[in-house]
Amino acid sequence: MKYLSVSEVAKKWNLNERRVRVLIQEKRIEGVKLEGRKYLIPENAVKPLDRRYKGQRCFEDSPLDKINFDFKNYRKLFPNSEGYFGRFGGRFLPPNLSKAMDEVYNGYLTIAKSAKFIAELREIRKNYQGRPTPVYHCQNLSNYFGKVQIYLKREDLNHGGAHKLNNAMGQALLAKYLGKKKLIAETGAGSHGSAVAMAAAYFGLKCDIYMGEVDMEKQAPNVNRIKVLGANVIPVKEGTKTLKEAVDAAFEAYAKEYKDAFYCLGSAVGPHPYPLIVRDFQEIIGREAKQQFLDMTGELPDIVCACVGGGSNAIGMFEAFLEEPVHIVGVEPMGQGREIGKNAATITLGKEKVLHGFNSLVLTKENGEPADAYSIASGLDYPGVGPEHAFLHEIGRVKYESVTDEEAAEAFFLLSRLEGIIPAIESAHALAYAIKCARTMQSGSILVCLSGRGDKDMEFMCKKYPHMFR
Ligand SMILES: Cc1ncc(COP(=O)(O)O)c(C=O)c1O
């Protein structure tokens, strides 16, 4: 009988060598023998069935089967040079601001791609942020539901307690190279505000953070944090006094100060080039997670999911998995129901519209104006969504599901009690979706982006859900 080496079999079966070794260790290949330290596999051995697609799943078919798209080249094609993902994205701004965006874009293409910038950011990621953040197997939570294995990408362990610092440090470093003296930013949950305040302290820049008054009350610990870090918090009193109005106010300030200031946008939204820049600074999440998951389990997860506000943690998590046979799910906040005004499920319920300088899906009133968005999670209650998500939804590569306030709150308390990890209420939305799957699926694995930690939400959640907080 002729025998093949691990690398020959890996090539023949189109797997990586690590995967073949795992299959051998799991005794799923017949007739393997060990010669010295080398495995030898019979030439006629049968490739084991991919367990990821056996049994009852949330999805029956492979996500890539129906899509005629080369995701290997995806990043080169999208966005195009004008910032479009298909028909979503672009830049809709008055000429002076558009010129300021050109400066940011040109700086990004030249400075941020230079070896010096990349090396400096790598150093910051490692020694200041504490990256890589781990992937953690939730043994207790998985056992609680019995059949599905749930894993977390622990962005809550990133310095500052959320994924937002990945982007804030990247943008602030670019601001420094561009010679700017001040950072301006909006914030909802205060996670991005804190991250920008940290970045400003690190680089010795001034810092103004715009925050709606309602969010300031709900996320008081983060307001204090921003102030302790030496930044100004500027209360926004207009409209619903939440994230949309904070963006309006921050943009207005930037329009006056763009010569000396840099707008540090916190999500994968806004005019070109921000959706591109934010995606690139956040994609470290998915790149690390994919390798870590492969190292831990020898295979890819069945499902990758993340909560979607503007969409930065989600796009950062998804990017590395787009070309893989993995189901990808963005989880939107359905708040208190499907009626417009009671949720922020933009992709599920929105219409195409320009908001804050870019074309995407937006929750709208009957008269076509942007509707008020609502979610228990201050970081998710934005009426628009990143253009790349609108595009990935349209081409069918990513599924967008939703969970309610109540479901997110259950997930918040369940993870805390079973694993000793208090998630941000934003991240609890992604976890709530994983829990829904764990209740119905017969087998499989789910990798959840735990975008942040929940200290900021403790007081509010315990008051709001006394029956869950006993
Ligand atoms: C912890 C956390 N997760 C998620 C989000 C949502 O933002 P994005 O959709 O840009 O990841 C926020 C926003 O503030 C947040 O604080």
Notable features of this structure?
Rossmann fold, binds pyridoxal-5'-phosphate, 6-stranded mixed sheet, alpha/beta, 19 helices, about 475 residues, 4-stranded parallel sheet
Could you characterize what this model shows?
This protein is an alpha/beta fold and 470 residues long. The protein contains 19 helices and 17 strands. The protein folds into three domains: 46 residues; 156 residues, 3-Layer(aba) Sandwich (Rossmann fold), CATH 3.40.50; 211 residues, Rossmann fold (3-Layer(aba) Sandwich). Helix content is 41%, strand content 17%. The protein starts with a strand and ends in a 6-residue tail after the last helix. The relative contact order is 0.14. The chain binds pyridoxal-5'-phosphate. Pyridoxal-5'-phosphate binds next to helix 8, helix 14 and helix 18.
Q: Work out the helix count.
A: 19
Calculate the terminal CA-CA distance, rounded to whole Å.
66 Å
Q: Structural class of the secondary elements?
A: alpha/beta
Rounded mean pLDDT is 94
> How many domains make up the coordinates?
3
Uncertain segments of ≥5 residues (pLDDT<50)? 52-58
Give the ligands present: pyridoxal-5'-phosphate
Described by strand count, sense and barrel closure, the largest sheet is:
6 strands, mixed
Give Rg in angstroms: 23 Å
Broad CATH class of the largest domain: Alpha Beta
Q: Can you give the helix content as a percent range? A: 40-55%
What's the shape?
Answer: globular
Assigned CATH architecture of the largest domain: 3-Layer(aba) Sandwich
Percent range for β-strand residues: 15-25%
- In order across it, which strands form the biggest sheet? 6-7-17-12-13-16
At the fold tier of CATH, the topology name of the largest domain is: Rossmann fold
The number of distinct β-strands equals 17
